[in-house]
Amino acid sequence: MESILSFVGGLILIICVLVSVAFLTLLERKVLGYIQIRKGPSKVGFVGIPQPFCDAIKLFTKEQTYPSVSNYISYYFSPVFSLFLSLLGWMCMPMFVKLFSFNMGGLFFLCCTSLGVYTVMMAGWSSNSNYALLGGLRAVAQTISYEVSMALVFLSFVFLISGFNLLDFYYFQVYIWFLFTLFPMSLVWFCICLAETNRTPFDFAEGESELVSGFNVEYSSGGFALIFLAEYTSILFMSMLFVVIFMGCDLFSIFFYVKLTFVSFMFIWARGTLPRFRYDKLMYLAWKCFLPFSLNYLLFFIGFKLLIVFLLLWNC
């Protein structure tokens, strides 16, 4: 009975996430439209609300083409695996009903994000196109570079809350959010999230000006739609994680979803405002700025916890 409940709960969660992705794409097109002083989608239905579903139907009903020289099996399955990993990450969402709130949720999240690199690399390599391969290599180098800082920042919080369970962030932020006490760290985490999800200004994997859409250049119809879904699922997940870590995580409050929508809007806002980085500056930012910053904070938190333990032992 418990396994059936978990399965049904997971299914509902996946359906909700996919519907959220549909409306996130609509929000992005609307916001980018208004940033560029034009209307977004407005013709289909009432103010263009059914537009994402029309796009999904169009993409999945188009003919699936593939390059004759591609490595077909890995070319075909990498978008599927990419979406699977993006959805699998949602299983560590800190739910109070003990459906998927396992104690090592933070570790599970790091594993899922690390595996996401392989799908991009596989998609770029198996297309057997120079542009796709270059896009894939860029994405892998970028993701691995920023993952180091992300893991260290997350490890700082592991020392702070003394555990990997994401539910603990709720208990530590009942009175004050970490956003106020650790504001510099929240900015760094947000930049790392942008880099991890290959979003502007870190979208070198899809640099249209030099790589013709990057690693997904050979994908069409269903394959392209799955890559698109995986990217936006990751954006939503990273937004959710940002809210959980820095802005309290009471999932039964409507305010939580308002905060999640605002953080997702910030992803779109960054895309509409910022130009693309230069690649060497991107790597410089990862290794010369974010890495020392995250290491310093990690050492600070370790020292802070050791001081607390020492004071407790002294009092005893």
From TrEMBL:
The chain crosses the membrane at residues 6-27, 72-96, 102-123, 144-164, 170-195, 224-248, 254-274, 295-314. This is NADH-ubiquinone oxidoreductase chain 1. It is found in: Mitochondrion inner membrane. Keywords: Membrane, Mitochondrion, Mitochondrion inner membrane, NAD, Transmembrane, Transmembrane helix, Transport, Ubiquinone. GO terms for biological process: aerobic respiration. HAMAP family: NDH1_NuoH. GO terms for cellular component: mitochondrial inner membrane. The lineage of its organism: Eukaryota, Metazoa, Ecdysozoa, Arthropoda, Hexapoda. InterPro entries: NADH_UbQ_OxRdtase_su1/FPO (IPR001694), NADH_UbQ_OxRdtase_su1_CS (IPR018086). It is an enzyme of class 7 (translocase). Its EC number is 7.1.1.2. It catalyses: a ubiquinone + NADH + 5 H(+)(in) = a ubiquinol + NAD(+) + 4 H(+)(out). Core subunit of the mitochondrial membrane respiratory chain NADH dehydrogenase (Complex I) that is believed to belong to the minimal assembly required for catalysis. Complex I functions in the transfer of electrons from NADH to the respiratory chain. The immediate electron acceptor for the enzyme is believed to be ubiquinone. One of its GO terms (molecular function) is NADH dehydrogenase (ubiquinone) activity. Pfam families: NADHdh. The keyword Transmembrane helix applies.
